[in-house]
Structure to design on (177 residues):
């Protein structure tokens, strides 16, 4: 960046640098989740409240219904973004309820955290469509929210794993009042 005299070149170099840092963050997060799952010594692939086949069929049916609802309900609002395609808002409205369903159906902490971040992606996409011209400080605040949530989920997963030696949330049902 020292040799780049044009602002266009500096912006491109910064974009490449940011992309590399994002890629490294994904690698570190993947390694942490893998280590947590390995330490749990329990396979949680089929850890849903339903069987794997039933959950898959239910999720597929709900996804189609909710995606259809999202596209048709939002399509009549005529809210458009200057940069994103018209279907972006319908897609974001479909992502949010599907993520809620996945959070309810899954019983392990890792899957619930991943579906929470999927829900966050749907909300972020909706904000990009609806409020594309918002000030920079608010955009930074939107990006700060998933970072805080990621740290909180990391702490919660570690504490839960330390106490129960499992990543399953079934032991939390004892807390019902």
């Amino acid at each position: 960046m020292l040799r780049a005299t044009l602002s266009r070149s500096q912006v491109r170099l910064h974009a490449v640098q940011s992309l590399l840092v994002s890629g490294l963050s994904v690698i570190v997060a993947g390694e942490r989740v893998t280590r947590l799952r390995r330490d749990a010594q329990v396979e949680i692939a089929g850890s849903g409240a339903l069987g794997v086949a039933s959950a898959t069929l239910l999720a597929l049916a709900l996804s189609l219904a909710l995606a259809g609802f999202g596209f048709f309900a939002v399509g009549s609002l005529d809210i458009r973004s200057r940069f994103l395609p018209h279907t972006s808002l319908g897609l974001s409205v479909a992502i949010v309820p599907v993520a809620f369903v996945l959070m309810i159906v899954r019983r392990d902490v890792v899957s619930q955290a991943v579906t929470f971040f999927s829900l966050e992606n749907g909300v972020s996409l909706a904000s990009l469509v609806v409020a594309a011209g918002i000030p920079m400080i608010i955009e930074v605040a939107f990006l700060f929210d998933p970072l805080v949530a990621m740290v909180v989920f990391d702490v919660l997963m570690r504490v839960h794993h330390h106490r129960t030696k499992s990543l399953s949330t079934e032991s939390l049902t004892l807390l019902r009042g």
